[in-house]
Write a structure and sequence with these properties.
267 residues; alpha/beta; Rossmann fold; 8 strands; 43% helix
């Protein structure tokens, strides 16, 4: 499904939680017992970036893709995820977070492991030192949201387009960032990701944790990827070739397969 068609088929909803607007896109399978999956994008992401996954699996998985609001503390976002789950009557669900969203997902799993089925930690981190070229905390605090947006946009525009998926990703990110993200969101997220406080490992069985990484991710360093594998030594690890930092767009088929393999195709 093309992104424009997806937008028409899956309108965005919103709810106020602790004075902040939480926007989300939800799929509604006919099967009332379908598994549920909450998806959290990264610092330069909003709910619609997971359109490939919602279009592929929305008829069999109740997917709730979230736009994280501007907030000064990661713990506030983790609490908001749980409040949103309660608002949607999701007693149990799986959780997928990518990049900053993956950090938030690990906070949720640390505090609410009894509510989670499967935790997907994708292209993510727990230490700011494992970031690639993003600004430091001091740089992010000193800059305006508009300046930080301009820096990110310049990096996207310079990114090579070695395959059609990269061209699609670049166009999508530029359009998406302009429409879906305000400057306050961008600034608070970049300050947050530059000053992470590593959480305790969630009390989840190994067979309920899935890592997704890409061998050419320029945002998460090779050391960071190795650190995450060591943090979850018995988890399932999926290393995608050439997917960059946004494999849910650039390697959508493989990404969809990972989700299906854990939520749909198990005996």
């Amino acid at each position: 499904m093309e992104l424009e068609a997806f937008r028409a088929a899956y309108p965005e909803s919103a709810v106020e939680i602790d004075g902040r607007e939480w926007r989300y896109i939800e799929t509604r399978p006919a099967d009332g017992d379908a598994p549920a999956l909450i998806m959290l994008p990264g610092a330069f992401g909003a709910a619609e970036l997971f359109w490939n996954q919602m279009a592929a699996h929305g008829d069999r998985i109740r997917i709730v893709s979230v736009t994280l609001p501007a907030a000064p503390e990661a713990s506030q976002l983790a609490d908001g995820v749980m409040a949103l789950a309660d608002h949607l009557d999701l007693e149990r669900f799986s959780l997928l977070g990518t990049s900053l969203g993956g950090f938030i997902a690990q906070l949720v799993a640390r505090d609410h492991s009894d509510r989670l089925d499967v935790l997907f930690v994708a292209n993510s981190l727990v230490r700011s030192e494992h970031l690639g070229s993003l600004p430091s905390k001091a740089q992010a605090e000193a800059a305006t949201g508009a300046e930080l947006r301009a820096r990110i946009v310049a990096g996207i525009e310079k990114a090579p387009e070695t395959e059609p998926a990269h061209t699609l990703l670049k166009a999508t990110l530029l359009d998406h960032g302009a429409r879906c993200l305000n400057d306050d969101m961008i600034k608070t997220r970049l300050v947050m990701v530059a000053d992470l406080d590593e959480p305790a490992v969630p009390a989840l069985p190994d067979d309920r944790i899935v890592l997704v990484e890409c061998d050419d991710d320029k945002v998460i360093t090779a050391e960071g990827r190795a650190y995450m594998r060591a943090r979850y030594p018995q988890s399932a690890v999926h290393t995608l070739q050439g997917g960059g930092h946004f494999p849910y767009v650039t390697r959508a088929g493989q990404y969809n397969g990972i989700i299906a393999g854990r939520l749909l195709d198990r005996d």
